[in-house]
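pls design
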């Protein structure tokens, strides 16, 4: 069965089918196949999880995570439907689902905006606020802890390829990084999305729209905050000319998030976030999924050296200040 027939069969099983449609593969599918499908009623996005991710390293993960993503999208829609695209149909046995298509001219990708130097510090604050609202709504919920108990998926998609792989590459820091991974794995605080990154956030007319939640798992919300802040630090190395604006975004996002923390002491989650950040910095140059935009060996070495110096930090402002000083 070719791609067109396969998508057609999935659309039929989801009740969205028809004989008249066109398919265009969308870019950026490392863990999934993603298509724009133009139906008579308009375009939709169809997504299918892959059992083996498209990276150089051997990286496999359960394809059942497609169902996890649907569950997360539907849960967040119940909190605030503006934060996620609408799920239109699901073919769970085949790990495929369809969701609302959000046109890029109205919903540009945050990563693309940052790369072009269109750095909206207020938007970063709105990301922090929205993320905190999601965590607040899910904190201490036994039902969601049960429904999103996906430790095997989260280990395969996040802890092993990121933190544990970085621990192997830096054996002197290995015990500290493995302890951080164990802390995330053992936490039962709130629902993590697991992939809060500028490449998975659209700049919508009413604020951020979150995508790609196949890594969702009940655990430590500090992971989400650290995962996103990490990218703002890395982008300073990618585009030095925008570093000051990226760091203002870092501070605005962190401050907005911490201002909305109600489920625990803000200082406690800030300390865990600060502890995770250096390990995640190392993971994005020495893990199984290094960021594709830091290809220069000098830039990679800068990240390694500065990340190693940040172990032991407990305040996000200190990390931002040290990063700015190192950039010169």
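designed seq:
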């Amino acid at each position: 069965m070719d791609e067109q027939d396969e998508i057609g069969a999935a659309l039929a099983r989801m009740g969205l089918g028809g004989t008249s449609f066109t398919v265009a593969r969308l870019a950026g599918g490392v863990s999934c196949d993603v298509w724009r499908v133009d139906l008579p009623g308009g375009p939709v996005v169809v997504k299918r999880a892959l059992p083996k991710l498209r990276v150089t390293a051997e990286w496999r993960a359960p394809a059942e995570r497609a169902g996890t993503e649907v569950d997360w999208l539907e849960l967040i829609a119940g909190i605030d439907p503006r934060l996620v695209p609408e799920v239109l149909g699901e073919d769970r046995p085949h790990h495929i689902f369809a969701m609302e298509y959000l046109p890029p001219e109205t919903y540009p990708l945050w990563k693309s905006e940052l790369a072009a130097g269109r750095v909206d510090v207020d938007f970063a604050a709105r990301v922090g606020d929205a993320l905190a609202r999601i965590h607040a709504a899910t904190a201490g919920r036994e039902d969601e802890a049960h429904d999103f108990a996906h430790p095997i998926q989260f280990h395969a998609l996040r802890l092993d390829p990121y933190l544990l792989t970085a621990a192997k590459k830096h054996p002197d820091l290995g015990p500290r990084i493995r302890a951080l991974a164990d802390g995330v794995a053992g936490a039962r605080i709130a629902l993590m999305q697991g992939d809060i990154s500028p490449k998975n956030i659209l700049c919508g007319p009413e604020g951020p729209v979150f995508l790609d939640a196949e890594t969702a798992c009940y655990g430590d919300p500090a992971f989400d905050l650290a995962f996103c802040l990490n990218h703002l630090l890395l982008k300073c190395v990618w585009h030095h000319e925008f570093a000051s604006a990226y760091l203002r975004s870092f501070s605005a996002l962190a401050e907005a998030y911490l201002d909305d923390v109600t489920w625990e002491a803000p200082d406690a989650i800030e300390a865990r976030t600060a502890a995770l950040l250096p390990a995640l910095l190392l993971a994005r140059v020495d893990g199984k999924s290094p960021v594709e935009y830091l290809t220069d060996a000098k830039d990679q070495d800068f990240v390694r050296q500065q990340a190693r110096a940040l172990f032991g930090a407990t305040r996000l402002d200190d990390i931002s200040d040290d990063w700015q000083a190192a950039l010169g």
